[in-house]
Specification:
- The chain is mainly alpha-helical.
- The chain has 4 helices and 2 strands.
- Strand 1 and strand 2 form a beta hairpin.
- It starts with 5 loop residues before the first strand and ends with a helix.
- The model has no long low-confidence stretch (mean pLDDT 79).
Length: 150
C-alpha cells in the first residue's frame, strides 16, 4: 500500500498522478472567464451606483448647506462667546460688578477678595495693566463689599 496513488517509471522514481493528468479542459477556462467577467461587471455596477449616490448627495447638500449657513448667520455671535459683550455702565450695578470679577452676584466676602486679588495681579497698572480696568476692578470690589456688609 505504500505505492498507492503513485506510479513507478523505468528508473524507479516515484511520481504523482497529478503530474500525468491532462491539461485543463478548454471548457473550464471559458467558465472561469465567464465568472471573472461577471465579477468585473458586478464591481463596475457597484462603483457606478456609488458614483450616482455621491452625485445625489452633493446635489442634496447644496440647499441644505445654504439653509445651515443662513441659520448660523442669523444667530447672534454673542451666543457662542463666554465673554461679556458691551461696555461699562455709567453707574456700576451688582450684576456688572460680579461680571467684572468673574464671580456670582451673591458671593462671600472671602470670594470677592480672592477674585479681586487675582484680577489685580493680572491687570495692575504697575505691571503693564490698564489704569482704567484697575479702577473698574476696584469699583466692583468696593460695590460687592458694600453689598455684603448690609
Amino acid at each position: 500500500m505504500a505505492n498507492a496513488g503513485r506510479v513507478t517509471i523505468d528508473g524507479g522514481d516515484m511520481m504523482r498522478y497529478a503530474e500525468y493528468s491532462p491539461k485543463t479542459n478548454p471548457r473550464s477556462d471559458i467558465d472561469t472567464d465567464r465568472r471573472l467577467g461577471g465579477t468585473l461587471i458586478a464591481v463596475g455596477l457597484g462603483v457606478a451606483a456609488a458614483g450616482f449616490a455621491g452625485r445625489y448627495a452633493f446635489q442634496l447638500w447644496k440647499p441644505l448647506g445654504q439653509v445651515f449657513s443662513e441659520t448660523v448667520r442669523k444667530m447672534p455671535s454673542s451666543a457662542f462667546s463666554s465673554y461679556y459683550k458691551g461696555g461699562f455702565e455709567q453707574k456700576m450695578s451688582k450684576r456688572e460688578a460680579s461680571l467684572v470679577l468673574g464671580i456670582g452676584p451673591v458671593s462671600t466676602k472671602a470670594k470677592v477678595r480672592e477674585a479681586h486679588r487675582s484680577m489685580m495681579v493680572l491687570n495692575h497698572p504697575d505691571k503693564g495693566g490698564s489704569p482704567y480696568l484697575a479702577a473698574k476692578i476696584n469699583e466692583a470690589k468696593d460695590l460687592l463689599d458694600k453689598e455684603n456688609r448690609r
